[in-house]
Specification:
Chains A, B: This is Hydrogenase expression/formation protein HypE. The structure is a homodimer of 349-residue chains. In chain A, the strands form three sheets. A seven-stranded mixed sheet of chain A has the order 9-11-8-12-10-13-14. In chain A, strands 1-2-7-5-6 form a five-stranded mixed sheet, with helices on one face. The first copy, chain A, has a two-stranded antiparallel ribbon with strand order 3-4. By secondary structure, chain A is an alpha+beta fold. Chain A folds into two domains: 109 residues, PurM-like, N-terminal domain (60s Ribosomal Protein L30, Chain: A), CATH 3.30.1330; 158 residues, Alpha-Beta Complex (Phosphoribosyl-aminoimidazole Synthetase, Chain A, domain 2), CATH 3.90.650.10. Chains A and B meet through helix 1, strand 1, strand 2, strand 3 and strand 5 of A and helix 1, strand 1, strand 2, strand 3 and strand 5 of B.
């Protein structure tokens, strides 16, 4: 039944003839899929910008439009559920272009056998997260797949926001001289999930940082609109985010390793599992590339906001080594912070 | 880990403690999920209108916003792939509010082990379908799930369109006196899929009717804007669509069974599998509820369009039996055309 009309895949994507887990890891394999499969097939300049959301002009309105599929396991984890994650994740993708998120859609793929009470609890959390963020879930769809062809529930949310006139925040807008800020401690969401999966226990349980960031962004912009690029470091963690911006903007990024706030529990869990916190997913943090002269004002505004209390400057943008992220280590040396090929996997033996 | 905060499911959804296939069938069970789970959780008037798309006012723009998840098996079928289906399906949901579709997003859930060439072929077909319809795929997301937790690829598309000023086409706008039109033969998509699954062969293979309908709608509106409700009869088929409009508008619908165009191959395949063509899914047809005085003009415009060549009037809207669809049968009797509880399943022995 497969009729390719003579069309052939543009490049042998490394050596993989089939999809592997790493294609969804937010690293190099994910980027290859986009570059070799989706961009050539979909052919348009908006997609090619690879922002967290697309910027569209519709009549007199400037809209941000974004989508994200959520396949997290377990469905319920410390600090959240797949439902609030799906709402906040898409809100954050919109917020990273400076947009005010307004409306969300939700597509559910349910697996036969999912307890109705679990679906109800997830939907309830989605509704609560939307109300908390001031957005409205206006449209949706539900499909059911046979047992053994899903994982309880997968949710794809899409969102529409309005981008204020004149604002242009995008991954390719970072400039040498910019300071790089992070809004707080990294690694919490990923290690909360990983701890549950691996059965780790700590004195203080690790909780996901899942939160909507648009109000924090609005507060930052009100303090000083000279913000060039924003991204929430989800899959692939801080390292992937810094690399994506460095590459899109054609600039180098230098960070001070010791300046990156990492909670002791995250550090401990990472050590036990053999993971690097720089590559662990977050769901309620952002990285900002800000014009140097605006840095102090933006930082102060972040620290005055509940979701940016521990914001800090972690580095700067340089003209040297474009597309590369370099960290100054604790012992005075430097190391290249590369993107991973696939996913970071916990040490299993 | 499941903390319901004391919240309980609003009603025992029939006797099912878990999700069953019928919850995704577009019938009564699907409607119960929406009414008992999603509407109470998401609490807003726009969602409660239950249109194929939501109508939003953003600044001076009137937008339609819609989402649909696609889980069809097989991924490649006569007349299409899951890719063009995902593009045309969301375009059609937008078109059913009279919107001009502009932008699409796509969320991919890939199963480990999917051949890359299949993904590439599907993406290529999506791109081609989008270009053919004049819409742009502007943003996307890709996740990978472990082998045995998907079915090759699931795609969720969302779309944004612009609704012309003054237009109000919605499921609750049908009025007694309206004529009911269908744009062509029914049952092709569903029976093309079913024939492949069941290994049926016919002299002329059944092909999916998968097509974008927005241009047909624009043509109809240009002929006479007095169109009250539009819906593409996908899951649940013509019967579900007529019932949904009857219920939303609080009117009765009367159809002449013999007036509904059903191709001989569809009829034959349905007979072999013990299915009723009225409940079989379509992907390139629409049902229109049109003010009686506009009926002839709209019908003529449909017939002059390549996607409406076999359009015909199949019935009318009445004030009697609100919420109910009644068919006059070939032998002069009448029968109630109800919505199914779940899905129509082929006879397997």
């Amino acid at each position: 039944m497969i009729d390719l009309d003579g069309w052939v895949c543009p490049a042998p994507l490394r050596d993989y003839p089939t999809i592997v887990m790493g294609h969804g890891g937010g690293g190099k394999l994910s980027a290859e899929l986009v570059e070799h499969i989706f961009l050539p097939a979909f052919q348009n300049g908006t997609l090619a910008q690879l922002g967290d959301s697309a910027l569209l002009e519709v009549g007199a309105a400037r809209l941000a439009f974004s989508t994200d599929s959520f396949v997290v396991r377990p469905l319920f984890f410390p600090g959240g559920t797949i439902g609030d994650l799906a709402v906040n994740g898409t809100i954050n993708d919109l917020a990273m272009s400076g947009a005010q998120p307004l409306y969300l859609s939700a597509g559910f793929i349910l697996e036969e056998g999912l307890p109705i009470t679990q679906l109800a609890a997830i939907a309830e959390r989605m509704g609560a997260a939307a109300r908390n963020a001031g957005v409205t879930l206006v449209t949706g769809d539900t499909k059911v797949v046979d047992r053994g062809h899903g994982d309880g529930v997968y949710i794809t949310t899409s969102g529409i926001g309005v981008v204020p006139a004149g604002l242009r925040i995008a991954p390719d807008q970072a400039r040498p001289g910019d300071v790089v800020l992070v809004s707080g401690e990294i690694g919490l969401h990923g290690m909360a999930i990983m701890s549950v999966r691996e059965g780790l226990e700590f004195g203080t349980p690790l909780m996901s940082d899942c939160a909507p960031l648009h109000d924090l962004v609005a507060t930052m912009l009100a303090a000083n609109p000279n913000i060039h690029a924003l991204r929430d470091p989800t899959r692939g963690g801080l390292a992937a985010t810094l690399n994506e911006i460095a590459r899109a903007s054609g600039v180098g990024v230098r960070i001070i390793e010791a300046a990156v706030p990492i909670p002791a529990e995250v550090r401990a869990a990472c050590e036990m599992l053999g993971l690097d916190p720089f590559y662990v997913a977050n769901e309620g943090k952002l990285v900002a590339f800000v014009a140097r002269e605006a840095g102090e004002a933006v930082l102060a505004a972040m620290r005055a906001h509940p979701l940016g209390r521990n914001a800090t400057i972690i580095g700067e943008v340089v003209a040297e080594h474009p597309g590369m992220v370099v960290a100054r280590t604790g012992i005075g040396g430097t190391r290249v912070v590369d993107t991973l090929v696939g996913e970071q996997l916990p040490r299993i033996c």
